[in-house]
TrEMBL record, chains A, B:
Organismal lineage: Eukaryota, Viridiplantae, Streptophyta, Embryophyta, Tracheophyta
Species of the source: Eucalyptus globulus (Tasmanian blue gum)
Residues in STAS domain copies: 588-692
Record's protein name: STAS domain-containing protein
Chain segments carrying region Disordered: 33-77
Main localisation: membrane
One cellular-component annotation, GO: membrane
Record field: compositional bias (Basic and acidic residues): 57-71
Length: 700, 700
């Protein structure tokens, strides 16, 4: 009953081991034959039972054997072409040609216009249901937001190496535009730390803000304009997925790195250093600080003032977290710090003792800056590049913020609409003296906690900031620079998510590498390098996983027709004489086809030459190659399958392929390779076993 | 019996259509309920039949329900760590720690040494069985090879911008070394066109061969040394897979591009142009030719001579292909051409009328060049880079040649041994005045056709070339340069495989893009850019396929428990109320997770807001997410699965996941996400349907 090739018994000294192995196998075989018999009975029973009852309904099913199923496989219709896939993909993204507009055509013109307007300005949708209770909440959260926003805006403007009023301008127009067009209810729009730092670090490489402040500012506006165009165009072309290309892990690392860099840069304000490096990497910054210490060009009063108010802000925040009652105090503590510090300096005239103060802030409405956009500048190429990078980072941050809060409230954020809204916001911002605005992590959290209901809180904030610009800018004359540094520093811990980094480390080491790569890159080289490292690691990971070479042995799970990896499911039963292997990777291509082919040959024992062939006996009579993992195959992959079949046949082993995916079947057919690899293609592993006489021979 | 949510019937004017749709669905449902009933009967019958017979064998199987199987899934052992995978991978590559050496330890010392020697020098293995009949064939093919090799070597040396004797040297030592260490029987080792062109184009960028011929030559030897080191080290470290990274398609394009470039360069010799560009791109070459035409610095006799003998070689080859009898004539026609042309020039003294001749070739044995390797040269960095590129290309070519002929004769080529052999060949070559040698396409084909049996044909060839070097170099004084150009030109068509390019185009458009990218890059920019384009396109293709976003709807194949893509298998039956979707990509990661999540939400109708929700009724009560395609998942993927579950639940839809792979299960467990996505994980789709009460509700 059991077929053990006879060559195994009569050669070489290592006979004893062989005999034992053969006995083992014999036991296995008899076990399996029982299983198989059971299985065959099962099948007969199945056919019988289906025959007895419901003859009509199952007529079709009864007739279907593995031959028929194999035919289904080989005669499947052609898969959609690459072009078709792209079109379907774009449909899936919700291109305007979709259902939205087809239903539109049936309606009268006025309704159509209303529909389009509503799609562009979601405000028209939600404002109809707006109630007084909503406004109460929005007013409160808007005012809270403004109290945090005014000092932060001034601080971020200095981070972006612009005059303080430009930060305030950026907190007026962008929130108003976004409130009309955005779909997020909580997001707080305005200047943010990372984008401010990014813009200054990149534009500084083009012109020196110290030497040519006007040109520098104009280039910042121009970069903002291109960032907006990039965002709006991406949204219109439904390229929302581009935002996803900076992976979550990379973003965590990037944000943390940027926060540390910004933190170190604040040493300038905190120490009152006059000459500071333009570079952002930690080494340059620390060198710069070290030099100032050395030349005694710093002032301890600045440090004293800064640290005192930083402690105050951090303590109130800590209290606010422990107890809801103190939340409001935590939110307005930056504003309180500014007022207290300003009064303190004014009273003590500390500016005469070396405490640096903001001095003049130009008040009034945002001036128009359309004339200042530098489209014919010789730097236009570099500025467009800056715009792209800033636009992408700003988008990523806004989407991350918006999505996380939308998920908390359980509604969905339309990525493409958000991109258009943010793009238009920045385009209009760039012609009204604003630099790049986006959703701020810290302020959005405050807005959410303060109980905002709609984007009206953004409008309230913008109007408050506008009033401050009109009325109170003179009062900020004596505000010490160190206090701005403390406010920025206080906002940074929110950007460093150690908990998430640990989570990433635990779940996926490669993701963590992307995270730490971005962090280190930003910290020690530059923002662009950090981003580049993160994106590269992320994509290298995709490549490695996709082409990871290797095969897994499959066994039948008891009680089912399902075949699974025997390592993952130790209870799975392998079949003697039949080797069921699955290609592990999702592509059989130039990069792994040869390796996988060699691996399969090795596992059949077909690779050994000379001596070993004589000693070991060949156990495998049938190789079943489960191709279900393969998404695609290329010409190298097809060639190696053909070669594998040829080699196996020359070693007396049969080969069957099981469940090739649509694209794979199609490509094998195009290359006319089905016959070259033996023509044995089955839908399931059981079908392949049933259909191959060799396998039966071995197992019965 | 049929559950149609009542909201669908009593709103909006488009009622009629809805009613019709509902009716359709009703019909479907009743059909399905029949199918399901049948299926349940089937299952009962199966359990009954297995209960009746072979009670012992199947005791275990009977008890196993979907709950048990689901438990198997969630309690699978931990998958091997990344480190373990790498170790296993290296084992698979056949690292010396494997079985080879463990069996070795049992043997006495002398046998062990013999074993190791045999592994390093395969010649010791095959020479024992070497017979006189073998030698007869090898002698014949070796001589045929030499007759082709001598003129080609001289030609390729001029292509590499070296003196002619260096080509001959490269045909002496490398074949001898390779014959000792190589495992291929047919491959003909020596200088080849593409490597010669590559070496001259790359080293020319470092020093000008016209101005500093000695330094240039020394750098070529040094580059050859590093190419050899790279090859040998790759082989020893079992990095044979690196060769595969230049995909087949890219190689086809690269070879064709290189052939065209070499062809255009031959215009120099064919037209007898004195001043020629050092650049390899077609535009520079044609400009150079145009200038020469303009300044009349070319000579028509060269062209006449070259074209006449080119025609002769091509005609004899054509005859040789049509008729086996002329094969020998075709093989030695280059040698005949050289002899005839030399005699012709000597007799007519054509060199005095502008026909360029080779003049002096230094005869004698290969001089030692160990002293000339430039390890302390300032160019060492660049030379190492050149060595790497040349080593890689030479390896790729040799492996492609060796593998294709090994496959023809049905034996296996050990990639790593080949790499070591080729590496040692080139290292020894570099200290004996040879430049980089590798397997030649054209000469290997001749060797094979001439009936070689073992690497002895290479030895015969080497000795013949050596004799020519000792005795006949003076006779080549009057050989016209144009004849060398014709010989090179005649070898080029073999490098352009239009048929294969068409095949690639037919099977895989992206592969063809890599092919044409390499071709265009080599032709119009430079060899390195061509390679870079090819490799980039190949890897971008891998990324695109791996992250291609999308889902496919699955249906049950009649007569089975197998669920398949309904587009691929139109006979598959979908289940009303239950939506079975499979993620198409092999990775659920940052790049596609959000898109896939949105897509699934759309397909359930859960995405629509406001109006549409009222019109359509919700058909889906259960989403079964088949994760079997996923090789891995990252933190973004896990987050989007959690979000998807939350969204689905909020729309009243249940979600179950089916057959997550080992890594995916593990990562979900690490992230503690199993419960967050509902905890419903099943091994098969049928199990999921059986286990979810909602689904039963909908379908019975």
């Amino acid at each position: 009953m059991v077929l053990v090739p006879s060559i195994s018994m009569n050669e070489d000294p290592a006979e004893a081991a062989d005999v034992a192995a053969a006995r083992d196998r014999e036991t296995q075989l008899s076990k399996f034959s029982q299983t198989l018999q059971h299985h065959q009975h099962e099948q007969q029973a199945r056919v019988a039972s289906s025959g007895n009852e419901e003859a009509n309904a199952v007529d079709h099913e009864k007739a279907v054997g593995h031959t028929e199923r194999s035919r289904w496989l080989t005669t499947a219709p052609e898969p959609p072409s690459a072009w078709r896939e792209v079109v379907d993909y774009l449909r899936g993204m919700g291109l305007p040609s979709g259902s939205e507009f087809s239903s539109l055509n049936k309606k009268p013109v006025t309704q159509r216009v209303a529909c389009v307007l509503k799609a562009i300005f979601p405000v028209l949708q939600w404002c109809r249901g707006y109630k007084a209770t909503h406004f109460k909440n929005d007013l409160l959260s808007g005012l809270t937001l403004a109290s945090l926003c005014i000092p932060q805006s001034i601080g971020y403007a200095t981070l972006a190496k612009l005059d303080p009023q430009y930060g305030l301008y950026t907190s007026v127009v962008p929130p108003l535009i976004y409130a009309m067009m955005g779909t997020s209810k909580e997001i707080a729009i305005g200047p943010v730390a990372v984008v401010s730092m990014l813009i200054s670090s990149m534009v500084t490489q083009i012109v020196d803000p110290g030497a040519e402040p006007v040109l520098y500012r104009n280039l910042v506006f121009t970069a903002t304009f291109f960032a907006g165009v990039f965002q709006a165009v991406s949204g219109l072309l439904r390229l929302g997925f581009l935002v996803d290309f900076l992976s979550h892990a990379a973003l965590v690392g990037f944000m943390a790195g940027a926060a540390v860099v910004i933190g170190f840069q604040q040493l300038k304000g905190l120490l009152g250093i006059a000459h500071f490096t333009n570079r952002t990497d930690v080494v340059s910054v620390l060198q710069s600080v070290w030099k100032s210490f050395h030349h005694d060009s710093w002032n301890p009063y600045n440090l004293l003032l800064g640290s005192a108010f930083l402690s105050f802000i951090l303590i109130t925040r800590f209290l606010g977290r422990r107890n809801r009652k103190f939340f409001c105090l935590a939110a307005i503590s930056p504003l309180i710090s500014v007022i207290l510090a300003t009064v303190l300096v004014f009273v003590t005239r500390a500016d005469e003792h070396g405490v640096k103060i903001i001095k003049h802030i130009k008040g009034g409405l945002n001036p128009i800056s359309a004339q200042q956009l530098q489209f014919s500048s010789p730097y236009i190429g570099e500025v467009i590049k800056v715009g792209l990078v800033i636009g992408a980072i700003a988008l990523t941050e806004a989407m991350a913020v918006g999505r996380s809060f939308a998920a908390m409230k359980g509604y969905h954020l339309d990525g493409n609409k958000e991109m258009v809204a943010l793009g238009v916001t920045n385009i209009i911002g760039s012609i009204t003296s604003c630099y790049t605005a986006t959703g701020s992590f810290s302020r959005t959290a405050v807005n959410f906690s303060a109980g905002c209901e709609t984007p009206v809180s953004n409008i309230v904030m913008a109007i408050t900031v506008l009033m401050a610009l009109e009325l109170f800018t003179r009062l900020l004359y004596y505000t010490p620079v160190a206090i701005l540094a403390s406010i920025i520093l206080a906002a940074l811990p929110g950007l460093i998510d150690l908990h998430e980094a640990y989570h990433i480390w635990k779940v996926d080491k490669m993701d963590f590498l992307a995270c730490i790569g971005a962090f280190v890159g930003v910290l020690f080289v530059s923002v662009e390098i950090g981003l580049l490292i993160a994106v590269t690691v992320s994509f290298v990971k995709i490549i490695l996983i996709s082409i990871q070479p290797g095969i897994e042995t499959l066994g039948r799970l008891p009680g089912t027709d399902t075949f699974c990896n025997v390592d993952q499911y130790p209870m799975a039963i392998t079949i003697p004489g039949v080797m069921v292997v699955r290609v592990k990777s999702s592509l059989l291509c130039f990069a792994n086809a040869n390796f996988i082919k060699d691996r399969i040959m090795q596992s059949t024992g077909g690779e050994d030459e000379g001596e070993r062939k004589m000693n070991d006996f060949q156990t495998t009579q049938l190789i079943i190659l489960d191709l279900s993992n393969l998404m695609s195959i290329d010409t190298s992959g097809i060639a190696s399958l053909e070669e594998l079949h040829k080699n196996l046949v020359s070693h007396g082993v049969e080969m069957a392929i099981v469940n090739p995916k649509w694209q794979v079947t199609h490509k094998l057919r195009l290359a006319k390779s089905m016959s070259k690899i033996g023509g044995k293609a089955f839908l399931t592993i059981q079908d392949a076993i049933d259909a191959c006489p060799n396998a039966k021979l071995a197992s019965i």
